[in-house]
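Table S2 (text version). Query chain:
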Amino acid sequence: MSGRGRPGGGLVRTHNPDDVQVTLNLRISSSSQSIPLQSLEGETDSTRQTAYPRFYIRIHASVKSSSHSNLPVTLATWRTPLERPIDEDEIISSSPVWINSALTPFHSTSDPSRCAGPPELGYIVHRRGGYPRNLRESWDFVTVPSADSGQEVVISHLVPLERLRFWSTNPSATTEPVRPEKGERFRIRPSEGGLGTFWWRWGDLDGDLAGKKFCNNEWFEGNIHEGQDGDDYLESEGENGFGLVMEVENETEVEFV
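Corresponding structure-token output:
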């Protein structure tokens, strides 16, 4: 089981099972099981963007177990597979491509050294506005429905196919871009390094947490006093996100046709 360490360190740590209060189940899917090779060629013009449907990787999150099964869970998504894009049009026009950093590059099922991803040989994190006193000013948060509800939340990540790059991690391979072959399948899954959170709390963003300000336990300890916005600021249920873990149910594959 994994949770996340202090913000900035990006450390995933092992929990004692007795310390885990919430376990989230992550299931991954894609908007299509096949990708036309033609969609990878040419410039990112309006004609090409409309010629093929947009391709999405979707993360389905649900509460697998909880010490309060009747309560929803709200968490910070920064550096996790649940972090949502700021704007899809920005993803398409940006260079390098803005893709969630907690998703691993695609790996060929026939030769794992063959990889696919945006420029710079990997995924980079969505932009966030630093570390404000109120984390809601720039961080992304999401509410996962309670375990008792049996419901899930789905986060969709747009992958601009026409801007994908291909390479090989094999030292003896050519430095020229590696092109996928017709019928070649690539595996997609969340990165183990993104399975945690820096902040979480029981409640719903649109319910009992509406209008509340979120702060980090360590950064602002001692700065919030009674009568000084104390009722409006909420710390994480577990310090720096401790007590919440994520488990990956599956991985998905896409075939180039």
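Notes on Table S2: Residues 119-127 have pLDDT under 50 and may be disordered. The longest strand covers residues 55-66.
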